[in-house]
Amino acid sequence: MQLDCAGKGLDLRRPGVMGVLNLTPDSFSGDGLATDVGAACERALMLEAAGAAVIDIGGESTRPGAAPVSVREELARVLPVIKRLAPQLRVPISIDTRQAWVMREAVAAGAGLINDIAALREAGALKAAAELGVPVALMHMQGQPRTMQQAPNYADVVADVAAFLGERVQACREAGIVDGRLLLDPGFGFGKTPEHNLALLGGLPTLAALGFPLLVGLSRKSLIGAVTGAPVQARLGGSVALAVLAAERGARLIRVHDVAETVQALSMLDALTAIR
Ligand code: 7PJ
Fold first, then answer.
1. Which atom of ligand 1 is nearest to the CA of 221?
2. 3, 19, 111, 114 from 133: Cα distances, Å
3. Which amino acid residue places its CA nearest to atom 14 of ligand 1?
4. Contact residues of ligand 1, CB 6 A cut-off
5. pLDDT attached to residue 131
């Protein structure tokens, strides 16, 4: 399974890592990359050297409680970095956005994959993705970032998320986006309690059975805090464990902040898989 991301390959035959490059000023990694294009590019090159298969660039904070940003602001954050970085990276850049215009500008600047937490539900997004021709990750989210953690509610979280993702696949087909360009993501933490997140982790094989490569993001998320009490800056162990558990249950791309550690952990899973 090799995806063509605007000329750069993304190999999903074995679980790989998507490295996070967060260009929002309130990023909870607190790395201050939002205001320094040079530092952001250096960080991306480090993530590639550490083994990331794709670099995910985002300019809108979507953590619980976050307010939306304007398209103009989002573009100002991501475009200079994508433009400078694309020619320097061997691996593809993914653009983490819900906005159709950001998708268009980012792909024109060199991004090769769309990572949309709203699964192409915002105005114009389906059309933009269809016209751009790059692969798209469709993520499940209940509600909106500002309020999504207030009262998450499901009849059966695995079945509900599977049904939603199935509907979005159908919407993509109708818009002319072929199945081979799609990845699916259950959206850990996006309108989910810790129990919902655990049920989804356990239910990943059911979601994998939909027949699309699965992307998951668990890195440093509040589930780890809920289980262990660890604050966000001390969740490396939990993040690496969740990456391995997700990969074992069928995830093909793991979105993480700590690339080197996760790549090393996944190598061990790979070694075990090779002898089975
Ligand atoms: C995810 C994401 C995720 C995808 C974020 C954070 C919040 N994109 N963007 N999946 N999470 N596809 O990193 O904690 O889980 S931002």
1. 14
2. 12, 22, 12, 10
3. 221
4. 62-63, 96, 115, 117, 137, 139, 185, 187-188, 215, 217, 221, 255
5. 98
CA-based angle 116:121:125, to the nearest 5? 70
Question: What is the model's pLDDT at position 30?
Answer: 52
Whole-number Å distance between alpha carbons of 91 and 73: 26
Owner of token pair 């699965």? 214
The band of 52, judged by pLDDT with boundaries at 50, 70 and 90, is very high
Ligand 1 atom closest to the CA of 188, numbered from 1: 15
**Residue identifier of the C-alpha nearest atom 11 of ligand 1:** 217
Set out the domains of the chain in order of their start, with CATH numbers: 2-271 (3.20.20.20)
Mean pLDDT, the chain, rounded, equals: 96
pLDDT in tens, 87-141: 999 999 999 999 999 999 999 999 999 999 999 999 999 999 999 999 999 999 9
Please give the distance, rounded to the nearest whole angstrom, from the Cα atom of residue 217 to the centre of ligand 1.
5
pTM, whole model, 2 decimals?
0.97
Provide mean pLDDT across the span 148-172: 96
Q: Annotated active-site positions, please? A: 221, 255
CB distance 239 to 228 below 8 Å? no
62: left (phi over 0), alpha (psi -120 to 50) or beta: alpha
CA of 187 to the centre of ligand 1 (A): 7
Compute φ and ψ for 19, nearest 5 degrees: -85, 135
